Amino acid sequence: RCNLTIVNVIDAPCGYGKTSWAIQYMNEMSLESHRFIYVTPFLDEVTRVQQSVHSRKFYEPESIKGETKLNDLHRLLGQGKDIATTHALFKMANAETRELVRSNNYTLILDEVMNVIEQVPLKKDDLESMIDLGLIEYEVNNRGLTYIKWKQDRLDHESQFDIFKKYAIGNNLMLCADKTALMWNLPCDIFKLFKDVFIMTYLFKGQFQRYYYDLHGIKYRYLSFAKDDQEYRLVPYNDREVHDKEQLRSWITIYEGKLNDIGDNRNTLSKSWLENSRNKDLVTTLKRNTFSFLTNHCKANNSTALWTTVKGNKESIQKKLTPKGYKNAFIPMTERATNLHKDKYHLAYLVNRFMNPIEKGFFQQYDVKVDEDTWALSELIQWVWRSSIRDCKPIVIYIPSKRMRDLFNQYLTSDKFETLPEEAVTDQPPSDWNL
Strand ranges (DSSP E) for 142-195? Predict the structure, then answer.
């Protein structure tokens, strides 16, 4: 039963100093009162935390002497060490991880939202076969959510269904209503085993992790920052320093012109549009347009340019769209929480983001409201903020999808996306009274 108000969501724009606040917090808390797990998407951010927090030593789980990283994580948790690790490892948490977290009174700092749900590929007759073989049963919990349970007396059964078995034993496997897909789902009880949980992100209201919390009845409070000199303070979201969009607009030039004509329809440049062989001539045009924007319009080169699109199967779409001379300027459209590209200022965003329809439908079947436009915008912003806009330096960006361009313009000219869901807690201080 996940029903405690425990999650502190620090919702502040990219580059506002969320990581700096976390480093300050971990440096200031006493070794007696606090143990931390810091979880970030990237290994270089693990290193940054290890180098920046001087008051305590952070350990990074390693695979040594035939032991897995998860075994090492359990060893470090058992010893009560401060730990810095990646999203990928944290997602492997199992019953043993949860018990060690609970008994050692840890505080979780999560840098950026995680993939808390993922579709598990299911062949046509897999479910029926597993039921016929007496391997699984359905279990509906007190919130009406349907889980796949592996039967206790069939634990030693080995088959082609072992991947489902692994997830079902960990209480991680949920059923989509139409029974066409299964969903891996990070067990929500892990979030209530920490002393405090802090998630550092932006536009949380559009993120899958928010819908996952709504699905499981986990309450969250919104916080933001105030900064005095070099000190960061967490404040209730209602007391935040409001984002100065006028200043922001002065640094961002969005290309307007005929190179945008290709993206006028609502679904153009979506993943399925890019993958559709009927659009191959249009994809060639898009590649030409991007080259023209970067080379003729911006006078860009590999050291100033950054572009992205859907990678596609075996990077097929990425290869088809790579403008001549800009192969090394590509970064994935899901890139976040890294400073490696902050000297780039000529940008091309060649994709129109929509949620995976099965994941979106998974939430909707349980009456969780999904805001696809805020999600798409937040994905775009995360990507754009890898560039020199992080350091308040000007950028020029080509967004050929009219839908994505309109969302970005709306964001830059209004506070529409910063208004929070009605049920959100926005007037409370953080849960850790030491703050």
Answer: 146-150, 173-175, 182-185
